[in-house]
Amino acid sequence: STHVASARGAAQVLVASNRGPVSYEVQQDGSLRTRRGGGGLVSGLSAIGPDAGALWVCSALSDGDREAVRRGVGEDGVRMLPIPAEVHADAYNGVANSVLWFVHHMLYQTPLEPVFDADFWRQWENYTRYNRAFAEALADEAAEGAAVLVQDYHLTLVPGLLRKLRPDLRIGHFSHTPWAPVDYFRMLPDQVAREVLEGMLGADRLGFLTRRWADAFTVCCTELTGGLGDTEVGVHGLGADAEFLRARSHEADVEERITGLRAEIGAGPSGAARKTIVRVDRTELSKNIVRGLLAYRQLLDDRPEWRERVVHVAFAYPSRQDLAVYRDYTAEVQRLADEINSQYGTPGWTPVVLHVKDDFARSLAAYRLADVALVNPVRDGMNLVAKEVPVVSDEGCVLVLSREAGAYAELGEDALVVNPYDILGTANALHEALTMAPEERAERAKRLSAAATALPPSQWFLDQLTALTGS
Ligand code: G6P
């Protein structure tokens, strides 16, 4: 490494994450188009904006990103690291998304199990290299005594590595995922489990989305590393950005998409408006989209009175398509939606309106039209959709919510709570949601919306910064 330990950068506050706030696409004419990054981490952190004066260090992910780095152009306050492709593939697809993500979401099911073979150990080496690239960039950019907020499971080794390079820094790490129970976590090879925990314990302060995940982490440390040492653990339940969402969801492009969606939803017998059950997710195994569709089919099966009168608006946006399990899952979602449509559909009624092309304005349009929001992950750090829909929906929607989502800790009392594996239970909850009396629905929606916005992203970030720097 060419890093010089005595060098000091200028940034007082730094954020580090794999995915950054923007990405670039090379256009036909060679110019670069800017796109907003996806996922909960970016939605949460984006609200901070360049105004906060923070420097955001992230990976160059697309060809456009790498081109932007090459041309030396890009947004103010963002530094993209051009990590070599094979290093990034091993760190991101291999270790982070195939192993750490699966462990924390407890997604392994026979025959899908972790295989820690020679390939894995090469990936692990590249994960370490990738983490070191972040640590070195942060060490170069950070001013004396600066605060560094490292994000998520991609970067678990950064706090420990950075601590060695720059003992003067205040280092925080935040997990946007659940944390695995110790019996599941120790599925990782001992060396990896220890390095992950010790890497994170290099931070002054660790943040989690709920008490449940913080406690699971603490138990892992008690059992596997001899405790937390001097590292503090805090809980910060990221909320929805009410002001931004309310304004954005009334812009012209959203209104336009509402018209389009209304046409797709159509009208029921004698022209009555159809009820809508809305879901918006990355096409992600933990989001449990397939069981959501099975529950909807069960509803149509058990209660024929809903046929022609309800539409399931399901947006399942592509995610991590380099991984075969994600591609297979995407295909299964599509197949099942088609099957339900051919089984129950009529010339004037499409039971499942499935869209797979990412479109934020259309997501907001669906939120506004939602009578019921279905959020049924098998495990989820928080789930921001559960918090966004109640804020945006025009009529105050009913939330059907998995007890395994982090959001359950804050919204559980006013949502209809389901066990995400229980298809019949979920179908019954959908029926209950669709038939809830208007007064009860309005009351619950009001409380959901208040709870969902209690900790807006800017405050969430500031709280962590204050706790880290003690000022
Ligand atoms: C989750 C993770 C984030 C990640 C997002 C999108 O929310 O906690 O770190 O950015 O998923 O996934 P992707 O792999 O596309 O970045």
Automatic annotation (TrEMBL):
Gene3D superfamilies: Glycogen Phosphorylase B (3.40.50.2000). It holds the Pfam family Glyco_transf_20. Transmembrane segments: none annotated. It comes from the Bacteria. InterPro entries: Glyco_trans_20. Belongs to the glycosyltransferase 20 family. This is Trehalose-6-phosphate synthase.
